[in-house]
Design brief:
7 strands, homodimer, Rossmann fold, alpha/beta, seven-stranded parallel beta sheet
Chain lengths: 320, 320
């Protein structure tokens, strides 16, 4: 299928460096507008030069401020920076977000920095695929560094941050993060620990906690632990150096890259199949009688699904 | 396929009223052990008598205490009660949960009450399908009332609570819940509002906020607002009456039921197709060369997915 004119124009403008084109492309792809898939096929070719930094941590650990400071550091190193802020879906507790968004606006005004906020609810292609799409569009635009900031709560958010080349897990004193982190298996995704608000009492204890956990769980691999005070900028230069080194070393292995691509293909496939199945079933007149049967307990959803799958499985087997 | 002996025995014991069999069945179905689908086909026939109450709200609104008190009220009305507590995945902030779990243990000791806790991460069939399966097993066991308690954060949790016959949205004074609720579209899923901790300052304001929001958004439909103090039990009797009436009126329409069943079939279908596709792709030698091509940008994930889908789409079209 040909990419239509509107898409073609946007892609051309994207490559010319238009932030407006980038914004529109992201929105159109997020909304799965007709032609999105062909557009991403095209854009994929231009990707692979940006390096991705994932930043995650509990609410209140100062991730946004840290993200802003890191972005500024990379701008000073003549890097073009993209930021993807994945907001918590939090239908109730959205209060603190307003402040975050205001801070994000300040960051957005830094030259060479482009910020995109993503809702965590209702992403048509699923949250982690949508984030991958946005990363690719920013990459194709010419961003050198893309920072993905997510709240470290929820499987989706963790899946997103795992796609980064380097993952920073942010802890702060007085929240018992260390202990919780190990419980949830966040430990293993950290390439670098950041102890933020290191001017607060208890920061040394957090470092000690992380160290002892690493000793217990990490097969002796060393994970750097950096103390910073994001608000004042203390420790940010050192952190930027370590992150840069980590990105240059390309420490993540070929096996990890393959795994990431495989996961991307699987997620994309699942979503596309789901989307297709919904589209055909939603206008099947057969469906309505099946639903009535299930409600009357003459039929059950499990049998219905098994029957739908018979031809699908046969098709796959014939195709192998 | 025949349900094997182990499953058959468990189903027979479930119908005889064995809580141990119910626990084991839930675990085996959650883990998608071989035979789970046939078991659920069998169990589905015995479902449809239990009534489902969904309770949702922000962390800290006292949902667990409210759930416990409501459970006790229904036990006093000679009802057999099942509780499904969907814990937040929260990899970092798990601290408060310990207290919740202790409270849950107290509730679990009430006669006629069975509590099941569900992790929000890693449910093989997806969180909302797993919750549906657990509801059905409890229903087939003979529970009259099943209370699903979820934190009202995250699309999955909201999807779960929407499957209930009556949905209680819990607010408390001083958290700005009212305003947030409307933003997130939680408003429309509430059949009953509960203002908990109504002895605190600001409770009347919460009621007023909810009322004014209802006026703005709800086409004039009346949604009851109940003030309670879960810890002392104040207002629980009145709330129980209103919930009972709501359940007896069977206020949710036939269209809603059809929509729920359709959604269940779609989710089940998507998960089963995804599961199947993953199983065949994970041992394809072809996959490894495709991954290498994608990493080298000679190929892209979007094209790969389109190609995989060709025979699937053909199969669906032939089958219609």
């Amino acid at each position: 299928m040909k990419v239509d004119n509107d898409w073609e124009k946007l892609i051309a403008d994207l490559y010319k460096g238009s932030e407006r084109a980038m914004s529109r492309l992201i929105s159109k792809v997020e909304n799965r507008e007709n032609g999105w898939l062909e557009t991403m096929q095209e854009i994929h070719k231009k990707t692979g030069s940006a390096r991705i930094i994932g930043i995650t941590g509990s609410p209140g650990t100062g991730k946004s401020t840290l993200t802003g400071k890191l972005a500024r550091s990379f701008v000073e190193l003549q890097k073009k920076v993209g930021i993807i802020a994945v907001d918590p879906s939090s239908p109730f507790s959205g209060g603190a977000l307003l402040g975050d968004r205001l801070r994000m606006n300040e960051i957005n005004c830094m030259p060479g920095v482009f910020v995109r906020s993503m809702a965590t609810r209702g992403a048509l292609g699923g949250l982690s695929q949508s984030a991958r799409d946005v990363v690719k569009i920013m990459d194709a635009f010419g961003k050198d560094i893309i920072i993905i900031e997510t709240v470290g709560v929820g499987q989706d958010e963790i899946d997103i941050v795992k796609t980064a080349d380097v993952v920073l897990v942010v802890c702060v004193p007085g929240m018992g993060d260390g202990i919780q982190a190990i419980k949830a298996g966040i430990m293993e995704i950290a390439d670098i620990f950041v102890v933020n608000k290191a001017d607060l009492k208890g920061a040394d204890q957090v470092v000690a906690d992380i160290k002892s956990m690493l000793e217990m769980t990490n097969d002796g691999a060393t994970v750097p632990i950096n103390m910073v005070v994001s608000t004042t900028g203390e420790g940010i230069k050192e952190l930027t150096d370590i992150v840069s080194q980590s990105l240059m070393n390309d420490q993540k292995k070929a096996a990890w890259k393959q795994e990431q691509v495989q996961e991307e293909i699987m997620i994309l496939l699942e979503k596309e199949v789901a989307f297709y199945l919904r589209s055909i079933w939603n206008d099947e007149t057969r469906l309505s009688s099946v639903l009535k049967q299930v409600i009357a307990r003459e039929q059950d959803p499990y049998t219905v699904v098994k029957e739908i799958m018979v031809p699908l499985i046969k098709a796959c087997e014939d195709h192998r």
